[in-house]
Amino acid sequence: MIWRTATARAIVAESPRARTIVLDVPEWPGHRAGQHVDVRLTAEDGYQAQRSYSIASAPEQDRLELTVELVDDGEVSPYLIEELRPGDEFEVRGPIGGHFTWSVADGGPLLLVAGGSGLVPLMSMLRHRAARGSDIAAHVLVSARGAGEALYREELERLEPRTGLHVAWTYTRQPPPGWTGWDRRVDAAMLDAVGPGPQAGAQSFVCGPTPFVERVTELLVDAGHDPRAVHAERFGPTGG
Amino acid sequence: MDVLHTDGNEVAGVLADVLAVDPTRVRRRCQSCRDEQPLAAHLAFHGAGIVLRCPSSDDVAVRIGVQGDHLTVEWRGTYRIDIARDAQVARV
Lengths: 240, 92
Prior knowledge:
The complex is a heterodimer. Chain A is of the alpha/beta class. Chain A is 19% helix and 35% strand. Chain A is built from five helices and eleven strands, in the order βββββαββαβαβαβαβ. In chain A, the strands form two sheets. Chain A has a six-stranded antiparallel sheet. In chain A, strands 9-8-7-10-11 form a five-stranded parallel sheet, with helices on both faces. The longest helix of chain A is centred in the middle third of the chain and has 13 residues, at 119-131. In chain B, 9% of the residues lie in helices and 38% in strands.
């Protein structure tokens, strides 16, 4: 798979530790919601570092968007978060992966469970659903440490069509002031309340840090969800 | 199980160089436990190279080494692989 040169056209702050990079990639072949790209940086001395980042944009959007969260001891994210400026270039290859993907044609209902920036590929699915004007049932549960770190909060409030779309949040450390919702780690009771239940034949997509994904997928299977319909993507302790 | 691992989704970019199909959808049957799972569901451990392990038995499934311009893939511990013909990706 070839490496292409991507040029940053715009950079959007999503949280103090995350930004969305809007890219121009010549001859980009298009992608499916849920896919990722490999990003490669090359230093002046030839040293190369490479990480995978989920695509945040819907296939219908003109430009490729990646949302990247800072990993303090990472090799790639500190550059992308702290140094990259519009007009700068780096290499990408992709799109990659057909297992963790969804399109409107695949039907629903959908159960999307995100830990932190695990929301990024799920957001691509929701933006795709919106771009198609689909009212396929989509039940979304986002686990974030605090309100300041939660991605896409405003957009998730106004995504259309609202019919069939249910978005729930849990804040595990610092809920927003006056928050009366969930403030604990994802558990069986929470998943039961979010739905859809095991009998509904849902396609589930779980993405986040490895311990989060291991726990949530186990809870889903224990609750009776078909393991073959539970798709997981792990990005390590905290990602790259 | 440590928490440093990722999974086969992340490794797919590397494996795409040796497979004519989307690596994440390639189903692998384990030599140890005979369980069949897509490579995407395998656990990926990063060290000197990358080791994919069966999510059921934890046995080594695939070893990937990248050194300079050389990519080495050992399909040890793999009983068989099953590839959906519609999983072919454009070779671009």
